[in-house]
């Protein structure tokens, strides 16, 4: 069984994802916070959770089990992919405008859009929350997204 610690997800990264969400949205991302390690809770969550770093062309640096399954990718492939490649080429400009809006406000809590898996399958994510990540010192750390709803197209 693949575990969060087997694939490089750190407790620190999980804490940043969870704490940033709580600070920006005023509520916990996961109802189970408090039981078990943050890394394990985040990796095993029934909702898709993914994040990217601060590079000029941000690269995904995290995907939980749900996200990896939905994108049909393993950890190494997922975490080496520029996040812009999660969208089809025709909607990447729209995605960029959206990401800029998230950067300005701190979060968006009602995003929907078409994404594409590693095998080329298309799916629409629904009511996604996308938020900025800040580390313990308040420095910008990247962005994360979480969603439960999706429809295969």
In short:
This protein has 153 residues and is an alpha+beta fold. It has 5 helices and 6 strands. Strands 1, 2, 3, 4, 5 and 6 form a 6-stranded antiparallel β-sheet that branches.
Topology readout:
Blueprint: H1 11-25, H2 38-44, E1 48-52, E2 60-63, H3 65-71, H4 75-78, H5 92-105, E3 107-116, E4 122-134, E5 140-147, E6 149-152
Antiparallel strand pairs: 1-2, 1-5, 3-4, 4-5, 4-6
Helix pairs in contact: 1-2
Protein name: MEKHLA domain-containing protein
Domain MEKHLA: 12-150
Report the C-alpha radius of gyration, rounded: 14 Å
CATH class: Alpha Beta
- Globally, the shape reads globular
Strand content: 25-35%
User: For the record, what is the CATH homologous superfamily label?
Assistant: PAS domain
Order of helices and strands: HHEEHHHEEEE
CATH topology: Beta-Lactamase
Q: Give the number of helices.
A: 5
Let me know the average pLDDT. Answer: 88
Helical content, roughly? 25-40%
Structural class label: alpha+beta
Describe the sheet with the most strands: 6 strands, antiparallel
Distance between the termini: 29 Å
